[in-house]
Specification:
Blueprint lengths: L11 H6 L37 H14 L3 H12 L5 H11 E5 L8 E8 L1 E5 L8 E4 L6 E4 L10 E7 L2 E4 L5 E3 L12 E7 L2 E4 L3 H5 L9 E5 L2 H10 L1 E5 L5 E9 L7 H7 L10 H10 L4 H6 L5 E5 L20 E3 L10 E7 L6 E10 L9 E8 L1 H9 L1 E11 L4 H4 L1
Parallel strand pairs: 2-18, 3-12, 15-17
Antiparallel strand pairs: 1-19, 2-19, 3-11, 4-11, 5-9, 6-7, 6-8, 9-10, 12-13, 13-14, 15-18, 16-17, 16-19
Pfam families: 3D, MltA
InterPro entries: 3D_dom, MltA, MltA_B, RlpA-like_sf
Keywords: Cell wall biogenesis/degradation, Lyase, Signal
């Protein structure tokens, strides 16, 4: 959205830091409250409910209804939502009060969890390379090949494989391609190796540093050329974004493929090297460090060998497409763990603004997922696109509570 990479992949602060020893424990099964204890009779009893402006939430629910409307519990709700004018605040409030029940989410006795943020970068660029726009946004290389190698087979020495498609191999005892799993520095949680063929051998694909030095210039299409290599790096962290071209139009790009290397945190590297403190290791803090140390930019980027390749997305003006398959709304969409929160449902979020104690309370819609979004009390707020959205997303690491809103008569257990 995961991150996906995205769908969200990693929330931005976690992707930048990913500090050793800070891994999240496996999520426990949530404690879903019974209606007699923690389920509100109506959303009207939620904190600050009467201060909410629900037009953007209602519009987001209509988007969710593109996926939910065929479900019996949601069909009537979606029909009514479609008929409501977004500008009628009182009608929207009555709709949510009359149609939904609010369930406070809990996990092992806790009712507070972590709320992070993500965004869609906006870069300046061109379809053509120039002195102003020298940095390529690559599509998937033609010579990038993948093969699934289960962990149980990684220690068996050399393996054999055969071609199963232009960019796909399959293991086969009589195959004519040799694979040595020990050659590949891969994420131990995954089974897919990415590489390139050299004669009858599969070699690891090029690293970020090699790609930045031009190793795939002849084998990968260029979707656009952009002005700023730093913004290009953070576009890869997010996995999707927009590029404003010379004529004022926008090119939407999203994740297409990856070079096979696990993500390595440049924020962690800077902290470990004593270049900055943990508290300063935000996206803006890293950008400031690069501005002060431009001669070390390439050294820093090479710390992360992972490289993301993009594809062009439909060119409408909507937000990126989340895991639900509908466009995300800036400030009103969240990524959740769908094992605990059903995609498409409204969620009442009570947290604080980034680096602040000022309350941030609003009704949002669960429309995305992410690889780091685990547990019943975990949310990643989509802030929209551009510089300001990136500022908020990069700094957000707040505590918050959540209430799940479901159509009356539908319980949390039945909604999953």
């Amino acid at each position: 959205m995961k991150l996906k990479p995205f769908t969200t992949g990693w929330p931005l602060w976690l992707a930048l830091l990913a500090l050793a020893g800070c891994g999240t424990a496996p999520p426990r099964a949530p404690v879903i409250p019974s209606p007699s204890t923690a389920a509100s009779d109506s959303p009207a009893s939620l904190p600050d409910w009467n201060r909410q402006s629900l037009g953007d939430t209602l519009q987001g629910l209509r988007q969710s209804c593109r996926a939910l409307q065929k479900k019996p519990a949601w069909s009537g709700v979606c029909l009514e939502a479609a008929a409501l004018p977004s500008s009628d605040a009182d009608a929207a409030r009555r709709f949510f009060e009359n149609r939904f029940t609010a369930w406070k989410l809990q996990d092992g006795g806790r009712d507070n969890g972590l709320v992070t943020g993500y965004y869609e970068p906006l870069l300046n660029g061109s379809r053509f390379r120039s002195e102003r726009t020298p940095w390529p946004v690559y599509g998937a290389p033609r010579d990038l090949v993948s093969v699934d190698v289960p962990m149980s087979q990684r220690s068996r020495g050399a393996l054999r494989a055969k071609q199963a498609g232009p960019n796909r191999l399959v293991l086969a005892a009589n195959g004519n391609i040799e694979i040595n799993p020990a050659d590949f520095a891969v994420d131990p949680r995954g089974i897919r190796l990415k590489g390139r063929l050299s004669g009858s051998r599969l070699l690891p694909y090029f690293t970020r540093d090699q790609i930045n030095q031009g190793s795939i210039a002849g084998s990968a299409p260029v979707l656009a050329w952009v002005e700023d290599p730093v913004e290009l790096f953070f576009l890869q962290v997010q996995g999707s974004g927009r590029i404003q071209l010379d004529d004022g139009s926008f090119l939407h790009v999203g994740f297409a493929d990856q070079n096979g290397y696990a993500y390595q945190s440049i924020g962690k590297w800077l902290v470990d090297k004593g270049e900055m403190t943990l508290g300063d290791a935000s996206m803006q803090g890293i950008k400031d460090w690069i501005a002060r140390n431009p001669q070390r930019r390439d050294e820093l980027f090479a710390v992360n060998p992972s490289y993301i390749f993009f594809k062009q997305l439909p060119g409408d003006d909507g937000g990126p497409i989340g895991a639900l398959g509908v466009p995300l709304s800036g400030g009103y969409s969240i990524a959740v763990d769908p094992r605990y929160i059903p995609l498409g449902a409204p969620v009442y979020l009570s947290t604080t603004w980034p680096h602040s104690t000022e309350p941030l309370v609003r009704l949002v819609n669960a429309q995305d997922t992410g690889s780091a979004i685990k547990g019943a009390l975990r949310a990643d707020l989509f802030w929209g696109y551009g510089t300001e959205a990136g500022m908020y997303a990069g700094r957000m690491k707040q505590q918050g509570s959540m209430w799940l809103l479901l159509p009356k008569g539908l319980t949390p257990a039945a909604a999953l």
